[in-house]
User: What shape does this take?
Amino acid sequence: MYPHSHPALRPLCLVMIFTPLVLGEREAAEAGSERAATLGRQWDVAVVTGDKLDAFTGKPIGYGSDGSYQGELFLYSYRGGQMTQIPFQLDEKTTLGEWVNRTYPGGTDNVAGLDPNDELAFLTRDVGDKAPAGTYPDEPGTTYSSSIEIEVADAGDPDQKGWVYLIRSRNASYTAGDLITHTGPTNFSTSAPQVRAAGYDIGFNAQAQHADSLYDYLVIKDGAAHSEQLLDKLKVKGEAKVYIGFGWLRTTFNENLPEINITLDGVIDGTVRVIETTTRQIRLELLGVELLNTTVTGTAYFHPWSVSFPLPIDPAELANSLPDGFKEIRVAATIDFNENAIGSVFANENASNVVIDGNPDDVPATMSGWAQVIGTAGRMFIMGNYSVFEGLSWCYRDDSTGTVAPCIEGVEDTGDGVYIGDTGIHIDVDALIANPPSTPTSLTMALYFLPPSASDTGTSLYAKQESGLTITAAALPGVPVAGVYGALILMAGFLYPLTRIRKTKR
Ligand SMILES: [Ca+2]
Ligand SMILES: [Ca+2]
Ligand SMILES: [Ca+2]
Ligand SMILES: [Ca+2]
Assistant: This one.
């Protein structure tokens, strides 16, 4: 390593090389005990609404028809003493609260520029240190005018925090990459849409019929390497008592019946999230009589390592909207794997070390806030705000012979016809309606897809989701007037009134 130095001197060379480095680190730690980023969130997307960024209200945040960012606000993280641009996106909502779909079908906000309900999204893993006042990026030829400091803290442990900087520039460009893509199609019946993210690919496989179905394709990625497709499919089973003229009849259904037609209403394909809005037209016919014909609009949020599906369930509203001729409704929504998941291990709050092997297990029906499936192909977590709702229970089936009773008795199983670690929630709609949460809340299910090498567990990830984030923002003073540019600006400031006076005199 040091061919010209005497062997006895080599340790000294090492000391000389490392001393400044060690001192540098110590200085940073001492000077910045409150300034170094400590937020331990690897997998989440943070969202800041425009009302917190009011110093930049009205500033351009638009995207070109090719998806390129055309706005004047850019997001930076301060790390290693430098401002570095990080992946971010700015999504707009209309005054009606509807997403402005810039990818498909394309539209514009009725309030131009940044306004209170527009959203800035970025990755929590990208937060950096607190920057000294007046720190701006050092990019040759790029000028910056002002900055908002955004602090992101773990609401459950406020000592864990980090910062990002939203900085205005008229001539900067977006350089931070794209971590997620919504693949092409806008028609579910003729194509196989997927979301391809840094941590996973999810959607429909090319062979299936899609318009009346649910996802059947999932790959958890580990870096660039793809592992096996893990999903049999997402499934829905249900039962209800239906009044048919002369009395009540128990009927059952799965996701293939009633008739479900999915329409893709809109897509925002950004760099850190994809927002997909769909309408499902649900039609149920029994003995030739149409019993139900309704539409449900849903929005799915795809992030680089997770997907969330907030279901706008207001039990009071649900009670009013149910058709009169229905009662005793139960629904189960589950994720069933294929044989590639065999050997993975399932656990939730009430069961541990449940090996997915196609042999039945004893998993209690007691509700759990989270579940995990961990195997060589990756780590999957299911979690939600289930604890605020009544009437929920856990449903788990592992049985490669197809003989175990389904979560809802008598409902024909879909997909490959066997259960491989089929797991999800069962909702007793009557109990849900009878005991509504004190404030209307969306039932949100989130799925995380992490590489096998991740150390997260259901317990640790769920605790973080439960506590949430506290985000505050503060406008910083403008760029200090300094150097040649400062002199030029000052000169221009003096000359401007003079030129005005001269013109007035003419
Ligand atoms: Ca708006
Ligand atoms: Ca706007
Ligand atoms: Ca994208
Ligand atoms: Ca199956």
